[in-house]
Write a structure and sequence with these properties.
The protein has a six-stranded mixed sheet, with helices on both faces. The chain is about 40% helix and about 25% strand. The protein has two domains: about 5-225, Rossmann fold (3-Layer(aba) Sandwich), CATH 3.40.50.300; about 230-330, Alpha-Beta Plaits. It has helices at about 45-55, 75-80, 95-105, 110-125, 140-150, 170-190, 200-205, 225-230, 240-250, 270-285, 300-310, 320-330, and strands at about 5-15, 20-30, 35-40, 60-65, 70, 80-85, 160-165, 190-195, 210-215, 215-220, 235-240, 255-260, 265-270, 290-295. It has twelve helices and 14 strands. The protein is of the alpha/beta class. Strand 12 and strand 13 (about 265-270) form a beta hairpin. Helix 3 packs across helix 4 and helix 5 packs parallel to helix 6 (about 170-190). The chain binds adenosine-5'-triphosphate and magnesium ion. Adenosine-5'-triphosphate binds next to strand 2 and helix 1.
């Protein structure tokens, strides 16, 4: 892919009410044609960043250009280039899907015949042709999100901002949305800026991603680069007792062994393919008994944990990943 920057931010900063630093000296370069992910937990500053780039709010420091236009000085030019699918629903429930699309087209002064034609194409793209003439209030959550997606596209923007496109959708509907986003990117050739706190979504969709927390970029790269930067596959091993755990901690030639509680260790290795036989030998040499062994290639969740020191799921209430993260953190201290 030819790398030509389409969005650049320089020390972009937003302080709300003189005290809440939502975005702090943010430096991003987003290239034409890519899907760029902004990942981070609740309150990381993702929406604030987007709101500045779409000229909905002004920065309190730094600068940014979108399609070559300065967001502070040329906001009208910026707005003509971009489409926005905000985190919250915007469609009018008492209109049909098609009527919503026509209304937005008129707002952008798209000639009627042209609007009708492109709305037809967009409806087809997200499989909403059949539901197009039903009131939006009869749509399912997934259908509404698909409608929102194409509302952002009626005026043929070069750049599309998607803020949490699958928030609140069930897993199945979420994966369907991913296909629609990919389809849009390849068919319409738009640059897409995507925020999400679902890291598997970013992994699936983004060409490159910045992980942000507390308004700052922690790391940027392709999902693959970030995962490889951890230099390690993870082998989770459950033993029959704590003694086994203590013995496992002495195993040579691995990157790291962490006691994660419940008679389990997390062994980080450069390559599971090469280390697994050695680990199995070690287990049998020391007459240990295991009840469970799993091999895990690093995911973006691990990347997030590595760079922020906590799991992204901690924000979302107590599941197993949260407990695991807490145990791992304790083990490190
Ligand atoms: N209008 C506002 N006035 C004051 N503070 C705000 C405002 N909007 C956001 N904030 C604060 O700025 C910080 C960043 O919020 P922001 O909405 O940008 O995060 P986010 O990454 O989009 O989070 P989420 O994942 O919940 O959507 C938070 O601490 C938030 O409380
Ligand atoms: Mg947000």
């Amino acid at each position: 892919m030819m790398e030509k920057p389409i969005i650049e931010t320089k020390n972009l900063t937003k302080i709300y009410n003189g005290k809440i630093k939502a975005v702090s000296d943010l430096n991003l370069t987003i290239n034409e044609g890519e899907i760029y992910g902004l990942a981070g937990p609740n309150g990381a500053g993702k929406t604030t960043t987007i709101n500045m780039l779409i000229t909905r709010i002004s920065p309190t420091g730094g600068s940014a250009t979108v399609g070559g236009f300065d967001i502070a000085k040329n906001s009208l030019d910026v707005r003509r280039l971009i489409g926005v699918v905000p985190q919250d629903f915007t469609a009018d429930e008492d209109l049909t899907g098609r009527e919503n699309l026509m209304m937005v087209s008129q707002f952008y002064d798209v000639p009627k015949a042209k609007a009708q034609q492109s709305i037809k194409v967009l409806l087809k793209l997200v499989d909403l042709e059949e539901a197009a003439d039903r009131l939006v209030r009869t749509y399912s959550g997934g259908m509404r999100k698909r409608l929102e997606l194409i509302i952002g596209l009626v005026h043929e923007p070069k750049i599309l901002f998607l803020d949490e496109p699958t928030l609140g959708l069930d897993v199945q509907t979420r994966t369907q949305m991913w296909n629609y986003v990919k389809e849009i990117q390849s068919r319409l050739n738009v640059t897409i800026i995507l925020t999400s706190h679902y890291l598997e979504e970013i992994d699936e969709l983004a060409d490159r991603v910045s992980i942000i927390d507390h308004g700052k970029v922690l790391i940027t790269g392709s999902p693959m680069e970030l995962k490889e930067s951890l230099k390690g596959d993870i082998i989770n091993l459950t033993l029959t007792d704590q003694n086994g755990v203590n013995v496992m901690k002495t195993i040579p030639d691995v990157v790291e062994v962490t006691d994660i509680g419940a008679n389990s260790v997390r062994i980080k290795v450069a390559s599971a393919d090469e280390s697994l036989p050695k680990i199995i030998n070690f287990i049998s040499q020391h007459s240990l008994s295991t009840t469970k062994l799993t091999v895990q290639k690093p995911s973006l969740d691990e990347v997030f944990l590595e760079y922020t020191g906590r799991s992204i799921r901690e924000e979302e209430g107590g599941d197993d990943a949260r407990k695991l993260a807490m145990n791992m953190r304790r083990a490190r201290q």
